[in-house]
Amino acid sequence: MFYSDELLDEIRLQNDIVSVVSEYLPLKQKGGSYFGLCPFHSESTPSFSVNADKQFYYCFGCGAGGDVFTFIMQMENCSFLEAIETLAKRGGVKLPEPKNAEFFLEKERLNNKLIEIHRQAGLFYYSALQDNKGEIARKYLEKRQISPKIQKKFGLGFSDNSRNSLYLYLKDKGFSNDEMVLSGLIMRDKNGNGFYDRFYNRIMFPIFDLNGKPIAFGGRIISSGEPKYLNSPETPIFSKSRNLFGLNLAKKERPSEIIIVEGYMDMISLYQAGFHNVAASLGTAFNKEHANSIKKVSSNVILLFDSDEAGERAVLRAIPVLISSGINVRICQVTNAKDPDEFIKTYGVKEFAKLIYNSLDHISFQINCIKKNYNLNNPDHKIKFTSEAANLLSSVENTIERDVFIKNVSSLTGVSEDAIKTEINKTISRQEKNFMTEAEKKRLKIRNDNISSAIKKSKGLIEAQRDILYICASYPDIFKEIKKFLSPFEFSEDIYKKMATIIYELNEKDEKILPTKLIQNFDTIEDQRLATEVFAVNIKYNNLEDMEKAINSEVVLIKQSYINSVSSSSSDINEINNLISEISKLKNLDIKIKK
Ligand SMILES: [Zn+2]
Questions:
Q1: 459-586: what CATH class?
Q2: How far is the CA of 61 from the centre of ligand 1 (A)?
Q3: What sign does the CA torsion over 106, 112, 118, 123 have?
Q4: Distance from the CA of 37 to the center of ligand 1, in angstroms?
Q5: What is the pTM (predicted TM-score) of this model?
Q6: Domain 112-231 in CATH: superfamily?
Q7: Coil/strand/helix, residue 243
């Protein structure tokens, strides 16, 4: 490891696991733990727990678990080192230069190269828009009323219909074929020898990262043809599920809220009209990564989508993604125009400002969407609508806010506020009850059938080892008794042997044993998960007597299994005799827990 334990501790201290996890998913406090829906498997009741005290997380559903570093590794699909970097940055901890920086340098060198390719391509496309061949594109932009000043501001360009002009240009600038292909702007032909441009005959929109570096392009076809819009493919520097068009410009404004639109033209057109807090999604369904990028700019979002049904569906899908990332969402629907671009050109800036001002909170928007499915003059529909609305309102945590919505639903339906409230409370307590029974069921299930497919030993033995490790880590006094009878090498799995060794050592040094301390000794996510499990899935004993009984039988089980495995591989008669006498001694094993 490049970094010292002290440094890792400092990073951990600055990144409370509850607040880090909360950036990805909402958590509800239940007793000493926080619960939420697991991001690593699909589920409808929360079995993902975060222990604020011990700073680890564990999912009772799928067994995912670890500390704040493991969480980032799993969530961002990155290495331990990258997780350290991310969290150090988040927590404002300065990292020293790693000793082995070659890997990072190589990655950075490549990324810089790819950005340079995009910079050059941007210049190439920009000048193509200005020269003779670009006339058709200039005419198009003129028709769309994009001023030359704005064209320049956004670095708009043109890719002509020659199939390899960019390739030849970049080659002339000294980039290698491999680099160009990796950039996504150049493609290899089928037999792998020839090269051609990905974009041709399109208006080019450069896409920038949050720091204003060009990382991709979007291209709109000039004449007829498909697809109308084409984006760069995924590359080491670009992902369309992370990057948004124009977000870099919005960031400069430090906006209190940000308007998210669907298309390049909408974004540019609003910007030109003076709304600089705008960004466009790049034609993919909204996901957590988008939400994370947006959150770096503002945590208040206005979703401004097209007035058609597809637009409405996109909004309904985006709402929970944004909400679960802690973003406040309002919805603005374009009326009497097909998209924001058309609206602002038809009705002007003032009307557009009004439209934005009248954005709906997301609950009202969703209630309106539900309402469309029902005819409220029909009593049966009225009941169904009210209970669907009540179900939605049960997710509103602020009671004042909830009351306002209850009033609205009541006046829509004529159902009394009290009746709606009762319905909501029923839903809430049903959800709570489901949650608790599900969580408990899952907890028991894990206790009973060993969740690790990697370990196919007897269930009892695995559980016994986990329990003993947990007890040794949590109760130093009992540890002193256990160690008289059980040694780390007698544990049956490498991972438990290693854990036992560490726990024994820390105990000898009188150090408090923190799960996070233990977890950092393991490199792979699977090992970190197994180590976390020891702390997450532990038995609650009714009394000391039960605990003592359990400890004794578990230690016997572990020792017996160890002796069995050694004797089955031994051919030395003396050793076997010794082992047999060891086994007979087990009957008299008696670990006492001091009161
Ligand atoms: Zn899970």
A1: mainly alpha
A2: 5
A3: negative
A4: 8
A5: 0.61
A6: DNA primase, catalytic core, N-terminal domain (3.90.980.10)
A7: coil
